[in-house]
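Q: For a teaching session next week I want to show students how multiple molecules come together into a single three-dimensional assembly. I've collected the sequence lines for a complex. Could you give me the predicted structure tokens for the whole thing so I can convert them for display?
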Amino acid sequence: MRQHLWSGVLFGIGLMVIIDEVIFHQLLQWHHFYDRDTTGFGILTDGLLTSFGFFAAVFGLFLFADLRRKVHIHWIKWSGSVCLGAGGFQLFDGIVSHKLLQIHQIRYGVDILPYDLAWNIFAVVLLIAGAIMLKRTSFSREAN
Amino acid sequence: MEHVHTPFPGAGFEITVIVIGVTALTVYYLAYEKQSNWPLYRFGLFTAGVLTAVISLAGPLANEAHSNFIIHMVIHLLLGMLSPLLIVVSKPLTLMLRSLPVKKARRLSVWVRRSRYVRLLHLPVTGACLNIGGLFLLYMTDLFHQMHSSLVLFILIHLHVFLAGYLFTHIILEVDFTARRYSFYHRATVLILALAGHKILSKMIYADPPEGISRTAGENGAMLMYYGGDVIDVILIILICYQWYRARQRTYTIQNNPSPV
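A: Of course. Below is the structure for the complete assembly, covering every listed component.
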């Protein structure tokens, strides 16, 4: 089912955006709301991404609810899609937003390298986990 | 603005606002009473919406907004986002069309559907541009400064903030009587872009607050605009996604039980 993938990926992206907003901006206050080095283009993409993320989180869940009333949820497939969406966004955020566009850094006043490494490695792990889960479910479908 | 103000925009303005608010409530209530199947909670929503608009234009909160940028932003959220949302979901236009004599209501709805102005105005993109574009003009030009010394500008800007917010919410949600309907993805895309515009503008205010606003006040006001806007926008997103969900349900019921006709 295509909808498993869409629902999972959208929810994964949205989940990451919300985690970023709640944990890194609000609770830890590591990310800065506005870094004086931010370019106009950085503000533009950040605004677009965050608002898309909110929409993705909500719409992903409604897609999930719609899926649930139609068919039995294939949990591994859906979880794999969530990992794929979350990991993809995390990697994009870590490389494009933090490094290329310099919207803000993960944390200020510390050596940033370990934070960047942890951030991006976690993203890659999520992506690989998602890919494995999706791959396994596609094999099991062929076997059936 | 740190210097002391003479009362602005003055008692006359505040009384006018209250009179308009009370009139709107009375008209809605009279129409509600005549309808046998109009739920009471919609009158509650309408009342909440009108009260939100009134307290943001008259009374202590409104007076405080002239000297305090953070309160100004609270008012901006109340008047431009929360009040329109509450009023739109109370479906005043549907109620109006139901209350009018049938012939008049029909003529009005045909006129609205055919009118070229309405067609131009009633586009999601137009709503978003009037709404967010107006805010860009207000905060990024000298308009914000001038608004506090000219009564005409003050009235026009506040009217615009409310009406543009109303038009945008009305077009995006489509819960009330509408001249035209747009697909879910069309409305969702415009909503995402408008939300992004709101976020971008609040960061621009953070970086470069309007003239006469201190840096801390500008930063706090901008962050309030950013996160407060998020709350209302998430409500809008949930509402339109729920509409999508219900519309999907309808297609399944039709597929499963094909109508005998």
